[in-house]
Amino acid sequence: MKARIILASASPRRRELLDQIGMTYEIWPVHIDESPRCNEAPHDYVRRIAAEKSAACHAQAVHMGLPVLAADTTVVLGGQIMGKPKDKEDAIMMLRRLSGRTHQVYSAVSLRGNEHGEALNVTHVTFRALSEREILAYWATSEPADKAGSYAIQGLGSVFVQSIRGSFSGVVGLPLFETAELLLQQGIQVLHE
């Protein structure tokens, strides 16, 4: 089946989500500096990163004539961006901070084709209280090592989630409602005959 979009990401989770809605795509990951700017608000940060990813990919793949989809997701606690952990100590510190509290997961989507469309999803996730033993055992699984906020809601980290208010797929890495809306604006229907 012929690709309908280019995915500017190597994330297996984003691929799984696009597969879930039957979207065909080419994978074209890009590498940009994802460092937050000084005093950059979380919603501005994720929107900027998603837009920069789609712009970089679109510039490289313009000859393919396909819309480019990019996304960025970050965990935010008390207004502070919690990226991927640098090491074990950083991951443990993040999980301790998330324990027993509600945090937000910001997911921005950027789609470049005939025009540029953007969307933002904010989901509230509440963790139950975590024991030190659980945190250390979770680190030992290696799952938190490359995840924003040091957890994967679609994996073993799901046992920490007491409640979620918003988009599950947004927490995983690609809010599907917003993505489908952006695709529709570019004339790409997810559900078609």
TrEMBL record:
Q: Which reaction does it catalyse?
A: dTTP + H2O = dTMP + diphosphate + H(+); UTP + H2O = UMP + diphosphate + H(+)
The lineage's top-level taxon is Bacteria
Query: Could you provide one GO biological process annotation from this protein's UniProt record?
Result: nucleotide metabolic process
Which keywords describe this protein according to UniProt? Answer: Cytoplasm, Hydrolase, Nucleotide metabolism
What are its E.C. numbers? Answer: 3.6.1.9
Catalytic-site annotation from UniProt = 72 (proton acceptor)
* Database matches in CDD domains: Maf
Query: Care to name a GO molecular-function term for this sequence?
Result: UTP diphosphatase activity
Q: What InterPro entries has UniProt attached to this entry? A: ITPase-like_fam, Maf-like
A cellular component term, taken from the record's GO annotations: cytoplasm
SUPFAM superfamilies annotated for this entry? ITPase-like
| Transmembrane regions listed in the UniProt entry | none
Q: Which cofactor(s) does the record list?
A: a divalent metal cation
Record's keyword annotation contains Hydrolase: yes
Annotated localization = Cytoplasm
Site features described as Important for substrate specificity, chain residue numbers: 13, 73, 154
Chief location of this protein within or outside the cell: cytoplasm
Q: Which HAMAP family match?
A: Maf
Q: Say what the protein does.
A: Nucleoside triphosphate pyrophosphatase that hydrolyzes dTTP and UTP. May have a dual role in cell division arrest and in preventing the incorporation of modified nucleotides into cellular nucleic acids.
Task: Name the family the entry cites.
Answer: Belongs to the Maf family. YhdE subfamily.
Name the chain's protein: dTTP/UTP pyrophosphatase
**The organism's lineage?**
Bacteria, Pseudomonadati, Pseudomonadota, Gammaproteobacteria, Methylococcales
